[in-house]
Design goal:
The complex is a heterodimer of chains A (347) and B (305). Chain A has 347 residues and is mainly alpha-helical. Chain A has a single domain, classed as Orthogonal Bundle (ABC transporter involved in vitamin B12 uptake, BtuC). Chain A is built from 14 helices and no strands. The longest helix of chain A is centred in the middle third of the chain and has 28 residues. Chain A is globular, with a radius of gyration of 21 Å. With 305 residues, chain B is mainly alpha-helical. Chain B has one domain: ABC transporter involved in vitamin B12 uptake, BtuC (Orthogonal Bundle), CATH 1.10.3470. In chain B, 71% of the residues lie in helices and 1% in strands. Chain B has 14 helices and two strands; from the N terminus they run H-H-H-H-E-H-E-H-H-H-H-H-H-H-H-H. Chain B is globular. The chains are: A mainly alpha (347), B mainly alpha (305). Chains A and B meet through helix 7, helix 12 and helix 14 of A and helix 3, helix 4, helix 10, helix 12 and helix 13 of B.
């Protein structure tokens, strides 16, 4: 039926039809998840209403949705950029953790620097940390050692264990006897927030990242070369484009984006490094990029949607005693319907 | 001192290697027919939670294993529908399946966190288990451990000694040619994925019923992804998978034994061992695998229209 509506003459406009199809698919995913909730004896209407009122029903809720969109947009870019040449970066989670790790190192070791120097430094450190983590996978891919898909997945676990090692061991704050966390950041290392909300400077980074992403892809020679590699790697190589360099570079910049997300979370939200840094932000970013097909506006829309859903997961845990991981089902269902539609036509 | 330590590492390697072997066989069956399943992690979680729930409710761990196998097979059909019928991207579909498995298993298992079961007990083989040292090393395990190597041999026999297995592998190499030879690639791929799901479900069941004897969210902790690396290590061959699983089981076991004995190395660094080992093994074996990988791995049979 959705198809029929979208094919009506009124919606000949392709973008409009695309939007309607997307809404239809989203509704389908919501209905299946409602059925799952029913099976588990939960009231889906109450659950959806609670999610909606807690996230979009108040200005505080909306600001919190925007706060979560910041790392989600950055981790989505970490996936979208390498995907331009068919690299599948599933390592956003690990890259985010390493970015946070590097940023923390800077913040707790250079406490006497002024903010104008310290903030850019931990930003660069965060980018470098995530970037290096991603570039390792790029390097392994170029050398033919391992596909970036499997190496980024495995390195997520290594990264999270590494952060745990530091916060339980050498970096553990002596002031907080029982909690595994680093020393708190000095004030100069805390990203400023706006309008009395928790929306922080990372929002600017996310927006700049989106604009650069669009601009570089559509208006520069690099974007053209990436498209060439994406369409036909062999032809691109014969035209003198170094695919190896692009593979490592895109994994580096992509990983750096996720590293910035980690830097933003640890500096503006937590104020110290904790093992509970990310509720799967990197994996959610992967979903967002896939849903958006790598389009910048689509990334913003999908990040908004998944920000509401993941925030909703916390609400459901508190009010309906549904495990927070339960919303993973809804996220997976959305991806299922998107994939089932896309794959229908051979590419 | 060193003797008992080595024996514990060896028996630990067999224990921890068993779910890895089932998981590796699962992935190998799928990949031989051209389908990479990154959702194995999710299939294992479903197997673990369904096996555990069934055991809690019936008190019979064997029913638990059976239910886990069936649930794993059915859950993998979701993946099959996406990648076979809808021709969706295999890697993204696999990750979506993993998410779905993580969420669904968390919902099913929510009320069971903290409950413990007797689970699958060790079956001591009469007489043999009484032999000192050797008895402990080889004849004191639960039923899924004993059956692991026979299952690997069975998978090998099915894949390499039957007509069905030949067609299956032919699809992995060249689906169009197989279609032209009068086989139905889609039906065979569904069958392969169902069997792969059964094996993945059993792998999860061994984790929750025999090793942990309890349920925890995301208790597979990346073992599904390690299995994907193990398939490459074992060159897509069920018998070589036995050696690979033992090696990785050994790494996990070494880490557990060192922790138990208070070796002054951070447990977090030791926990990295299986993942780092996977990456290293992939890098070292990279030269050999180009010839071993199924020809159309990751590609989708588009039909003949």
């Amino acid at each position: 039926m959705i198809k029929a509506i979208s094919e009506m003459a009124f919606f000949r406009n392709r973008r409009m039809a695309g939007l309607i199809r997307f809404v239809g698919l989203f509704a389908l995913a919501l209905m299946i998840f409602a059925a799952v909730l029913l099976v588990f004896g939960k009231n889906p209407i109450r659950a959806y209403w609670d999610i909606f009122s807690a996230t979009l029903g108040s200005s505080y809720g909306i600001s919190e949705v925007l706060v979560r969109m910041i790392p989600l947009i950055l981790t989505a870019l970490a996936v979208a950029l390498p995907s331009r040449i068919w690299l599948i970066n599933v390592g956003g989670e690990g890259q985010l953790f390493i970015g946070a790790l590097f940023a923390t190192w800077g913040a707790v070791n250079f406490t006497n620097l002024p903010a104008w120097l310290l903030l850019p430094s931990i930003g660069i450190l965060g980018f470098l940390g995530g970037g290096l983590w991603g570039a390792i996978s790029g390097f392994m891919r170029v050398r033919g050692w391992a596909s970036e898909t499997i190496s980024t997945l495995l390195m997520n676990y290594v990264a999270i264990l590494l952060v745990n090692f530091f916060v339980f061991g050498p970096w553990k704050d002596p002031e907080s006897a029982n909690y595994p966390q680093s020393a708190p950041f000095p004030d100069a290392a805390i990203l400023p927030s706006f309008f009395g909300t928790r929306i922080h400077l990372g929002a600017v980074l996310a927006i700049v990242g989106l604009i650069l992403f669009y601009f570089v892809l559509s208006r520069t020679r690099w974007g053209l070369e990436m498209r060439a590699i994406g369409v036909n790697q062999e032809a691109a190589r014969r035209n003198g484009i170094s695919t190896s360099r692009y593979i490592i570079l895109l994994m580096l910049i992509g990983g750096g984006m996720a590293g910035l997300a980690g830097m933003g979370e640890v500096s503006a939200i937590h104020g110290q490094l904790r093992p509970s840094l990310s509720p799967g932000l990197g994996y959610t970013g992967f979903l967002i990029s896939w849903m958006a097909g790598g389009h910048p506006i689509g990334i913003v829309a999908a990040a908004f949607l998944l920000s509401v859903i993941t925030s909703g997961g916390d609400i459901l845990q508190m009010t309906h005693r549904i495990p927070a991981a339960g919303v993973h089902i809804l996220m997976a269902l959305i991806l299922f319907v998107v994939l089932a539609r896309r794959g229908g036509k051979p590419r | 001192m060193i003797g008992p330590f080595l024996i514990s590492i060896f028996s630990g390697a067999i224990h921890s290697g068993t779910p890895l072997l089932y998981a590796t066989l699962s992935e190998a069956v799928g990949e031989r027919t051209g389908i990479v399943n990154l959702g194995l992690e999710g299939v294992m979680l479903i197997g673990a939670v369904v096996g555990f729930t069934t055991t809690v409710q019936t008190g019979n761990p064997f029913l638990g294993v059976l239910a886990a196998a069936l649930a794993g097979g059915l859950f993998n059909m979701v993946f099959g529908f996406l990648v076979i019928t809808r021709r969706a991207n295999q890697l993204a579909s696999g990750l979506a399946l993993m998410f779905c498995g993580v969420g669904l298993s968390a919902m099913i298992g929510a009320s069971l966190i903290g409950s413990r079961i007797e689970g699958l007990n060790e079956i001591q083989i009469p007489l043999l288990s009484g032999i000192p040292v050797i008895g402990r090393m080889f004849f004191n395990y639960d039923i899924l451990v004993y059956s692991a190597i026979p299952v690997a041999v069975l998978v090998w026999w099915l894949m390499f000694r039957t007509r069905w297995g030949l067609s299956l592998r032919a699809i992995g190499e060249n689906p169009t040619a197989t279609f032209a030879a009068g086989k139905n690639p889609h039906r065979l791929q569904y069958q392969a994925l169902f069997i792969a799901g059964i094996l993945g479900g059993i792998a999860g069941a061994h984790l929750s019923l025999a090793i942990a004897k309890t349920w925890a969210e995301w208790m597979t902790a990346g073992r599904g992804f390690v299995a994907v690396a193990l398939v490459i290590f074992s060159k897509w061959h069920p018998i070589r998978a036995i050696a690979g699983s033992l090696l990785f089981g050994g790494a996990i076991s070494l880490q557990l034994q060192m922790q138990a004995r208070g070796v002054p190395v951070s447990s977090f660094l030791l926990d990295m061992l299986p993942y780092v080992l996977s990456l290293v093994v992939l890098a070292i074996w990279s030269g050999a695998r180009r010839h071993a990988a199924p020809g159309s791995l990751g590609r989708v049979f588009q039909g003949t229209e």
